[in-house]
Amino acid sequence: MPINNSRISASDSRGFWSWLSSNQSYHSVSLFLIGTHRKRFIFLAAVPILWALVANFAPLLKMLEISFYEAYPLSKGREIVYTLDNWVEFFLLNVYTIPFLRSIVFSIILTISTLILTYPIAYFLAQHLPKSKQLLYLLILLIPFWVGEIIRTYAIMILLGNRGLINLILQFFGLIEKPIPFMYTYFSLGIGIVYLTSLYMLLPLYSILEQIPKNLLEASADLGAGPWTRFWRVTLPLSKDGIASGCTLVFLISMGFYAAPVMLGGPSSTMFSETIAGHFNVAADRWPVGAAFSSIMLISTLVIAATFLKIMGRGGKGIIR
């Protein structure tokens, strides 16, 4: 009996393909898709582009729409009422504007700190290590980032806690009597976010620094330029695209962090992402307010990032020349 089924299945399959190959519509579509390399490229590119649009922009547009609702989720029989109150509420209360401004300033400071800390590492990897060892060292640096954000945040808590590694070492050598309260401060939050975002700064910097021809540095040295002059006049201007990309990524990611501020920050270091999450977690019709605040943060971060890229002169003239 199984043999007969397989024969029937094979027969049906051959019949289907015979019908498909003789179908005029199938031939027309096939000829259109594979007729030229250009059409094949357009077809292959359209699928991921369409997916990106649906997966990324559709939720954002829905969030923007909800931000104008009077209430959401809608109860049964309740009609949609549009209002601007959710957006106006942000500007009326300091409890919202202060965390927002704090998040922007803090993210800018952390972005600059991450750049200062990771640039020497990227420069060493790209300019002072042989090609055969660069990949190995990059893989070693990437190992901590193979685990999730929350696990790495817990690692920072273990390091900075009252009974953490740093306090234990300081107490062991008699440098302190009581543990230093690192946790739940701007310091612990800053250390955590710099650690979590350093990879997004390191890779763009390494990628651009690795492309700088060494003969340019040798030529500038032959012309009498010292190490600092070569760095400021040759290396830094040629690496501005990597700086722009890395700083933009770190700033955008820092603004959107939620787990790290909750786990490492304190009441005085509340970030705007925590304020937004509070509106979605409460058992009330606060989703429209949360959606409005999310839209405000998204628009603000994009404007700041675009302004920074313009100032840096990515692809043109800027402050680094």
TrEMBL record:
Belongs to the binding-protein-dependent transport system permease family. CysTW subfamily. Keywords: Cell membrane, Membrane, Transmembrane, Transmembrane helix, Transport. Residues 100-308 form the ABC transmembrane type-1 domain. SUPFAM superfamilies: MetI-like. The chain crosses the membrane at residues 41-61, 100-123, 135-160, 180-203, 243-264, 289-311. Gene3D superfamilies: MetI-like. Pfam families: BPD_transp_1. It is a multi-pass membrane protein. It is found in: Cell membrane. The lineage of its organism: unclassified sequences, metagenomes, ecological metagenomes. It comes from marine metagenome. InterPro entries: MetI-like (IPR000515), MetI-like_sf (IPR035906). This is ABC transmembrane type-1 domain-containing protein. GO terms for biological process: transmembrane transport. GO terms for cellular component: plasma membrane. Its main location: membrane.
